[in-house]
Write a structure and sequence with these properties.
homotetramer, alpha/beta, D-Maltodextrin-Binding Protein, domain 2, Alpha-Beta Plaits, five-stranded mixed beta sheet, phenylalanine biosynthesis (chains A, B, C, D), Chor_mutase/pphenate_deHydtase (chains A, B, C, D), Preph_deHydtase_CS (chains A, B, C, D), ACT-like_dom_sf (chains A, B, C, D), EC 4.2.1.51 (chains A, B, C, D)
Amino acid sequence: MTSAADTQAPHHPGPLGETVVYAYLGPEGTFTEAALLSIPGAQDAVRLPAPSVNSALEMVRSGRATAAVVPIENSVEGGVSATLDALSAGPPLRILREVLVPITFVLAVRPGLALADIRTVSTHTHAWAQCREWAAANIPEAEYLPAASTAAAAVELSEAEPSFDAAICAPLVARRLGLDVLAEDIGDVRDAVTRFVMISLPGLLPEPTGSDKTTLVIPLPEDHPGALMEILEQFSSRGVNLSRIESRPTGMFLGDYFFSIDADGHVADARMADTLKGLHRISPDLRFLGSYPRADHRETEISRHTSDEAFRAADIWLESLLNGY
Amino acid sequence: MTSAADTQAPHHPGPLGETVVYAYLGPEGTFTEAALLSIPGAQDAVRLPAPSVNSALEMVRSGRATAAVVPIENSVEGGVSATLDALSAGPPLRILREVLVPITFVLAVRPGLALADIRTVSTHTHAWAQCREWAAANIPEAEYLPAASTAAAAVELSEAEPSFDAAICAPLVARRLGLDVLAEDIGDVRDAVTRFVMISLPGLLPEPTGSDKTTLVIPLPEDHPGALMEILEQFSSRGVNLSRIESRPTGMFLGDYFFSIDADGHVADARMADTLKGLHRISPDLRFLGSYPRADHRETEISRHTSDEAFRAADIWLESLLNGY
Amino acid sequence: MTSAADTQAPHHPGPLGETVVYAYLGPEGTFTEAALLSIPGAQDAVRLPAPSVNSALEMVRSGRATAAVVPIENSVEGGVSATLDALSAGPPLRILREVLVPITFVLAVRPGLALADIRTVSTHTHAWAQCREWAAANIPEAEYLPAASTAAAAVELSEAEPSFDAAICAPLVARRLGLDVLAEDIGDVRDAVTRFVMISLPGLLPEPTGSDKTTLVIPLPEDHPGALMEILEQFSSRGVNLSRIESRPTGMFLGDYFFSIDADGHVADARMADTLKGLHRISPDLRFLGSYPRADHRETEISRHTSDEAFRAADIWLESLLNGY
Amino acid sequence: MTSAADTQAPHHPGPLGETVVYAYLGPEGTFTEAALLSIPGAQDAVRLPAPSVNSALEMVRSGRATAAVVPIENSVEGGVSATLDALSAGPPLRILREVLVPITFVLAVRPGLALADIRTVSTHTHAWAQCREWAAANIPEAEYLPAASTAAAAVELSEAEPSFDAAICAPLVARRLGLDVLAEDIGDVRDAVTRFVMISLPGLLPEPTGSDKTTLVIPLPEDHPGALMEILEQFSSRGVNLSRIESRPTGMFLGDYFFSIDADGHVADARMADTLKGLHRISPDLRFLGSYPRADHRETEISRHTSDEAFRAADIWLESLLNGY
């Protein structure tokens, strides 16, 4: 494997002065932008909000953006299914990095307004669903008005003559727009976290770190009681753990599925490479969406029997057999 | 098993004149209401739109509603994660029925307006994402305004002084509100279908039909490479096919999962009953969310080795051994 | 299960004065007789040597013997294949007990003869093969004459005008016949042990002791790469360990197999009963050859998920589901 | 893999005039010699009967014999356990060929004797066990005298003053010694076949033929309910079928096993090579005993997913991923 460090890679933006352009699921001020801003160098890059996951990915495929940041799990503002489906079809793309963003909502108002004055509140419908308990207890009389995103609500609030009194949004956008925060961390679920990924065209792979994740899209080769087992056996028989699995309809016809899977480890690890080869044999249309560092830095546990050394020793042994020893 | 036909069951609404009350993820006129209306008897029942999946389910738990209809897969207007998570915690609930609704969007306007006149269009953000190709081709200049739901956009359009010119919504609500439909089936994905479920308190189970589905929530007992295999082996070793699997974080801490699973067959089938007992042994906190008829009426395939007869024969054989024959 | 202690059982020979008759693979004085004599009560029973395993078992089937003792593993004097095959066909029989006998050979001569005087030595061909190293070192010039069994050699030696000078046999028979033992423990393998079983007609099962073994004959239902796995999965998915497995041709045609298997545990254990039922479904012609105490008293290890309590809890849970809770 | 055809191999005996020496489990005239004689070229080679399997193999290990022929399954005259155990320990050996020999017994007498004259009959105890039904029906009065082998009985009969009247032996030896055959095919089991193997020092492998067998000795890495499954999964997950499996105690201590396994296919097949590497990782002390043509010429069935092409395609795909495509 050629190392990403050997040359100028999209995930090492701009060392030679080129302009790095990031697309992301917009608008500005959402949790997705927060995810993007946590990536080193993103502060100095061009950042283009896209109206949908598909359009963000399209900007990457067409070369207008170096990479895109989109949600892939648990998103407040949707897009997860779109991301899973978009990565499973069309020209291949690669995940270079994952980013975890804590989801904390604030209640923001124009400077000077008090809690008791709030008669209307706006935010994305999903954010509203997640703050309903707090709202019922604290602003029970407030009417809800939908917004296209949490950020859109905040932006409208900061403009002349907003049509509502308060916005539920991310701390980032409230601060940036100079809004007053009347209450923090008002989501009903504490410690909620959303996972985002940075996506690019295929190219050099991020180097293995010992704490990596590999994302795959695997069409179910046949639909019978053991078919999923055959796929999962490829992982378990090499000691590879899964951290996410979702069946998704292919969209072709009912009963036709693919699996979106995250597995612990890097394709440069012998056991993961062997797993991928096993998967390719039973489902040759699988897609490798990338091997990249885990955001939580949890080290991959490796059993003695599935270490790179065990694979190397087995290769050497077999070679000797074939040579007559 | 006592049959549902023996007595007055919640999924046989109102035979003795009692008032049947259905909650559903509102507002009126969404695809969820369309799902509800397709259920026999729902036309004559009280139908209460709920602002969120959780509140719809809460109405069932508290007895204010006989049953609730909520999305469980592929929803245009969200709610799927909320449904999966709500069913996995709190007092137990049961799925009594599934409903498939084709997702077709129309462009609706107030009577008299032409396509060329549209400068602003409103709908739910997810519906907008699914109609962007059509919009780019046909109303490229139109500005987008978010709505809380597809139906909310249609409703506002039907009221005095709407703040936009057109709504993207379900055919049902456009017809009901007397709006003009300028274009039909404008979604970018043809043949999209969303799955909804009707949920009630535990009680009599729907009778097996030979084309049934069983839905389970199974906490991962331990997190190691073979743990998911151990769970799936319980199904495959009894010839039970899965039609959906999703890992979901428990919300407790990272790396702690449960699986939301749909399996072919009914708990009254011997092989499914045996599978559930096997699952209970390895993950005693699993939840049975119900056995109910498949909406697509596809018959469950049963191998010779996993038929009710094979189970009965094995029981008799073992009994004879224990009695010394 | 009715307990064996409730009534007069064949493996509790003779409490009411009836005559207990044991058949065994003869002749007298072999390791098989040693195995039989180690069984409580056998000293006082009628003991009939049989010329072959089949004839010993036939004596049980016809009622002429209460039980038979035959080798089932590692036998010096053969019979193991015959035992495995005989148990797999014909009217059903049951193993009630296993016996481990240490295999130690002695060199026996008529009183007065010295090592240097030995010119010819006789024993069973298998015993000769196991003592060849000792013979090469200690009686290198001695010529070998075959005998039908180790005991037969000893018996001939004790009679008038034997045709050889020394016999290699079990300590038991040398002592009984009053022969001189010139060398003890002359086998090339130290600590060799042979396993014998006591076989009876089907009847009351020995009671579970917590250290039991279950023996099965399982025809391979179909011959494909996963067929054996499907069988073994029935054990492993219930946490049942195997202590012996042998494939044996059925004798019908090439490529047609049955498996002779010993598994840890008793059919009265829930996990073993469930395993047997699973096996019956995939291979309905399997034979249960008995559950009986292990000769080595090693306790069966039981995981939390496969305890009788876990099975009972799963049964109760399922029952409650079917009753609508 | 270097082809056996490239050079002078032990299993292509003697092309350059060297003397080929075969050891075999003797004595002369047994079924083992019949197996040896069926090997091309063996008629012209030196053939040395060995008194035991161990000594035959020792002749190969020490270089005194080019190869040895010994029974490995279902032998009339024993040796099978000795062969399995001898191959599992000591300096490595290789199976180059298997031979199937039909087991048919004849009743041989000195010329002129009639059936009614037979008062004593001799043969190996196992052969006697296999002909007892015929003997009971046809020579019920005849007394049995054991012999070291079927051939030894025939040889003694052909010599001056034999101590018995008839021998039960192989047709080969009766014919060779000029004995009269009074009855043919007198074994109780029709169509019995014994399998023998030709064993040599490690060296060039027999070339794959499309109908091959691979023999392995695999120590059980750990003793728990799933350990054997982990081993067998290596075969089944690559579509490799087993045709024989036997657990054998290692001789070290009770509960410590190895498995003797025959699998369909050749180590030069990608799926078998991959299986062996997988086995090496979980049980690094396994022994490869050879890949060699099946005696029954039954072609190995290969699924699409486990063909050499599928393996090659997977290798190429993985290589492209690692190179950034």
